[in-house]
Amino acid sequence: MADVGASLVVFLVAVPLSLGIAVAAGAPLIAGLTAAIVGGIVAGLFGGSMVQVSGPTAAQTIIVAELITTYGWRVTCLITVLAGLLQVALGAVRIARAALAVSPAVIHGMLAGVGATIALAQLHVALGGAPQSSALSNITDLPHQVAHNHTAAVAVGVITIAIMFGWGKLPSIGRIRPSVVPASLVAVGTATAIATLGHWEVQTVSLPDSLVDAWSGPALPEAGQWHGVAMAVAAVAMVASVESLLSAIAVDREHGGRRVRLNRELFGQGAANTVSGALGGLPVAGVIVRSTTNVRAGGRTPLSAVLHGVWILVFVALFARVVELIPMAALAALLVFVGARMVSIAHLRDLRRHHEGSVYLVTLFGVVFLGLLEGVFLGFALAMIVSLRRLTRFTVRTEEHGGRVHVSVHGSLTFLGVPRLAHVLRTIPSGARVDLDLHVDFMDHAAFESIHAWRVDHERGGGSVDIDETHEQWYTRSSARTAPAAKTSPHGPGRWWAPWEMRGEADGEVNALGLLTAGAREYHASTADRMRSVMSRLAHGQYPTALFVTCADSRVVPNVITSSGPGDLFTLRNVGNLVPPSGTSGDGSVGAAVEYAVTVLGVPSIVVCGHSHCGAMKALLEGAHTDAEEAGTTHMCRWLANAAPSLARIDVPESPPESTPTSETLCRLARANVEEQLGNLMSYQVVRERVESGTLTLTGMYYDLETARVHLLDAETGRFSPVRGLQDVTGPVPPPRTGGGQLIDESSSGASSRPSC
């Protein structure tokens, strides 16, 4: 049912946009609807994405418009068919990932240029005039259009644009949010209603009497046009493929289902283009706007994309007369808004941080003033130049103090930078004691030989060289066969997970603030630059894979034992990894975290992780929850009372035992406590509903401190089985399966694999 509801929302978004894109491309209006129908049904059935919605896209309008002008509509349909077959072939040979090698700066710049071109051209239509032949002409003629055109079409365009800009900013009325209804539908519908009821004289949409009458199939070009057609096929296939694959990857961040299968998605897009061209439709690609709308409306499977195409087909077949009431100025105004939104300042800001803003701007202006292919070529060429320049971009700083020369090298060391590096090293006095710090993310063989040769000569002259490598140990690995081992930094990445004292951090700074500061310095020196691109993307929102409930014990580090990174886990930590049942009085922070993770973040999984040698479980066995509340432990005693039902699972009386609990008893209780908390999670309505619907799984996990091994709860046997490491697996690791709402690891089963605690 969620997919059905989502399909209706996407259908309402797709109809006006498809018509508008056909208008911008100068194609028959029915071609836009045909492409939307085929893109939804064919790409949905044969594609590799769970939630992507395909159809005609604004990125293709400039190409299609030029093709129609040069070759005519029927040859353009043939080009669409051939481009689709090329995509099918590329998907079949599994080359989809190669399409992602295009710089994002070029892609975003291309889309921005297309958006600006569309907005400039359609603004004239919205003002009651006609677009000019080029973007420059559209700009120079715009003042004349604004000064002299004051027809009803202008009013329709102004109404449409005003609603598009203001609809999302309206306040909610109770639980009713205006954003639930697509702004494009409201804008076009309102403009159509006003124009119709007011009997305004405006040009409206004109559709053929039937889809059969509208069909105009592909036709062969003239004899001398085949070379141009071949170039056009490659251009359409490239733009459609790259846009579809990037859109599929981007929308994967919005949902927790199966990730996109890129080669299958490319195959599905090719099949859709083949059918669309054969039926007289526009080129098809994955559309990020419709795809994100689909996810936010509740779409979870390809059924929503398929049904959205079915609804468009039914609508065109039964309600074509309603479509013909839509003013052309309303569609033009809609495209002005869409085109303006394609020029993203946020993308430019992000790219500037990575020193790629120039690539974005060159591509944008190239597309606007020269043409799509010319602009993309200029952007791609500049991106290559920027990349080559980065290979030579490094800094060398030299300073002397304490009788030692400190040389610090930052950046990438390649043969292009060898002359400059060699010059700096030769200026170091003979016999000096040198500390060479290599903060490099890459070193090729030429750079290694240059440093190594200088080091050998310097040490022969009575000097000494200590080499520290903050990032990966490029020099150490290369010199292992040719020179004595160089001194390496104690802060190398191989031990980043170890405690401070094991890395020598505690030797000089023993206070907590000093240790934290030292750790922050190490992070800034070795990790922050690499994290920046990841964190800048995550700064705009989080889409964690799981709510991870675990103990506050400092020895349990969730991201280490799950090999996860920023944005993967929404972590909830407390004493004893407890989840009080819903409605329990007292601390409500756990319930708040559960509700937020499930309802707002939409996590597909909740993990409860206990561990061995748990202090909370030891206190529970010793009866801390039943003792008179001692000074300073009031909150702890009350909190541990939430774990008391776990004792019944291992047949331990709730009265304090006479002796210290054994490690085996602690192990049994810690595991029983995990099962108890999984049961408590089901007392929350939001959790229970999603578990029963199959959209949420509950997982029991146990971490053994002594063996550093992770164990998963098998819901069928009630046992915790260790997860086998890659070194223990001779064949492919079987994927975990779910059962009874909990994760089961099939790689370890049977009593023989169960540890004795």
Task: Determine the mean pLDDT.
Answer: 82
Report the sheet with the most strands, covering strand number, pairing sense and barrel closure. 6 strands, mixed
Helix content: 40-55%
Tally of distinct domains:
4
**Uncertain spans, ≥5 residues at pLDDT below 50?**
483-494, 653-657, 729-756
General shape:
globular
Count of distinct strands: 14
Distance between the termini: 46 Å
Which percent band covers the strand fraction?
5-15%
Which structural class should the secondary elements be placed in?
alpha/beta
What is the strand and helix layout of this fold?
Elements: H1 2-25, H2 29-46, E1 54-55, H3 61-71, H4 73-92, H5 104-126, H6 135-148, H7 152-166, H8 183-197, H9 211-214, H10 226-252, H11 262-278, E2 285-286, H12 288-296, H13 303-318, H14 320-323, H15 328-342, H16 345-353, H17 357-369, H18 372-391, E3 394-401, E4 404-413, H19 418-426, E5 433-443, H20 445-460, E6 464-469, H21 474-479, H22 512-526, H23 528-538, E7 546-551, H24 558-561, E8 569-574, H25 589-600, E9 605-611, H26 615-621, H27 634-640, H28 645-648, H29 663-681, H30 685-693, E10 697-704, E11 709-714, E12 719-722, E13 737-739, E14 742-744
Parallel strand pairs: 4-5, 5-6, 7-8, 7-9, 9-10
Antiparallel strand pairs: 1-2, 3-4, 10-11, 11-12, 13-14
Helix pairs in contact: 1-2, 1-3, 1-8, 1-12, 1-13, 1-15, 2-11, 2-13, 3-4, 4-10, 4-11, 5-6, 5-15, 5-17, 5-18, 7-8, 7-15, 10-11, 10-12, 16-17, 17-18, 19-20
